[in-house]
User: Which sequence fits this backbone?
């Protein structure tokens, strides 16, 4: 029996792990599929569009030719005037005149564009030009942004749990180290005596009799008999409920004989996992300084790796680029030479956005607490003091 029960326990444990991980994997897989479908859609629509050189393009070339000819004819012309003319002319230029759409809207380029859409980064380097592409971009963002926020909230719960447990373990270890330093021979003996007394009290933890209740609560004796008996009865019931263990319903736990109940319980657990999304993030309570330190270390690691394939970026520029990306500001002033390499770094972006989101949430909670203290302080100052009149 023991040999057969162990594989069954292993299968049940695997099933529990699978159904516990299922909601998280479902969200991430949905986001990946959504990104791939969007990449296929935009690469087909925007990549296959025809570029028609308009009359404005010919005027642009004509004006550029006139400026360059005037510069060669009159070398004494002021350079500032020449710069102003060139600057004004380049502002009228359009990107489509000089770039082939197929070079921009490759599959990886379109996938990078989709990631910038539903993460709300929006660098501005790549954007739809056709009318149908713009409409589909709005529709794509309408469903992609909530899905991305759902993934951020779900994975934020995991990070919040890890951070909370790590911080609590660190505090426990810190308290143990401080206790061992402050503990001397005499104090330790006293502490051991106190612990032994506490343990003995915990061991002798049985239901009290009526006489013991009356002895331990002398205030009960001073009450009328009717209220005294009711209070004693309630105290005894509460004491009894603390020591009675809930009976296990064996008929429901026999899953092997009733697989329908097993499926029902499994589905209810999966639904509970979906309902618990965002709960751990609300319970997170770690210092905001710790989160700032985590963000700094996290961005510094990427800033040290990114210049290896983006040769135009140094550590400071890469740090700035990662910060602008993770905070979803996305100016677009720093352009990447190899966006598909950074696309494979998308997991880093998602986790980093979650860390920044957690830091913003903690900062928001601290600000709300500060506003409450300020308002209560101002209310106490403005509240008139009560005057006591003699009788």
Assistant:
């Amino acid at each position: 029996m023991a040999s057969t029960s162990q594989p069954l326990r292993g299968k049940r444990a695997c099933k529990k792990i699978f159904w516990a991980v299922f909601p998280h994997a479902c969200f991430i897989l949905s986001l990946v599929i959504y990104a791939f479908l969007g990449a296929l859609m935009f690469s087909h629509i925007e990549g296959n569009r025809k570029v028609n050189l308009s009359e404005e393009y010919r005027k642009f070339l004509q004006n550029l030719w006139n400026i360059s000819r005037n510069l060669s004819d009159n070398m004494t012309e002021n350079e500032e005037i020449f710069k102003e003319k060139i600057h004004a002319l380049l502002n009228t230029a359009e990107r489509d005149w000089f770039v082939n759409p197929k070079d921009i809207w490759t599959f990886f380029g379109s996938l990078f564009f989709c990631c910038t859409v539903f993460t709300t980064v929006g660098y501005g380097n790549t954007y739809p030009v056709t009318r149908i592409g713009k409409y589909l971009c709005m529709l794509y963002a309408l469903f992609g942004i909530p899905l991305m926020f759902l993934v951020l909230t779900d994975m934020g719960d995991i990070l919040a749990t890890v951070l909370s447990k790590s911080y609590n373990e660190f505090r426990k270890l810190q308290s143990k180290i401080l206790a061992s330093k402050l503990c001397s021979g005499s104090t330790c003996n006293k502490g051991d005596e106190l612990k032994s007394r506490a343990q003995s009290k915990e061991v002798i933890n049985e239901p009290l009799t009526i006489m013991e209740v009356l002895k331990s609560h002398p205030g009960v004796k001073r009450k009328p008999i009717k209220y005294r008996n009711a209070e004693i009865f309630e105290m005894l019931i509460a004491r009894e409920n603390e020591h009675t263990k809930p009976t296990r319903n064996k008929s429901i736990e026999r899953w092997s004989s009733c697989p329908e109940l097993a499926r029902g319980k499994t589905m209810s657990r999966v639904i509970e996992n979906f309902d618990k999304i965002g709960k751990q993030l609300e319970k997170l309570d770690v210092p905001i300084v710790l989160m700032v330190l985590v963000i700094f270390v996290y961005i510094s690691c990427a800033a040290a790796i990114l210049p290896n394939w983006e040769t135009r970026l140094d550590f400071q520029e890469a740090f700035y680029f990662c910060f602008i990306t993770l905070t979803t500001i996305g100016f677009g002033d720093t352009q990447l030479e190899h966006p598909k390499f950074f696309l494979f770094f998308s997991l880093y972006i998602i986790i980093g956005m979650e860390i920044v989101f957690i830091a913003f949430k903690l900062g928001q909670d601290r600000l709300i607490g500060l506003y409450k203290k300020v308002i209560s302080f101002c209310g106490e100052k403005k509240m008139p003091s009560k005057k006591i009149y003699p009788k």
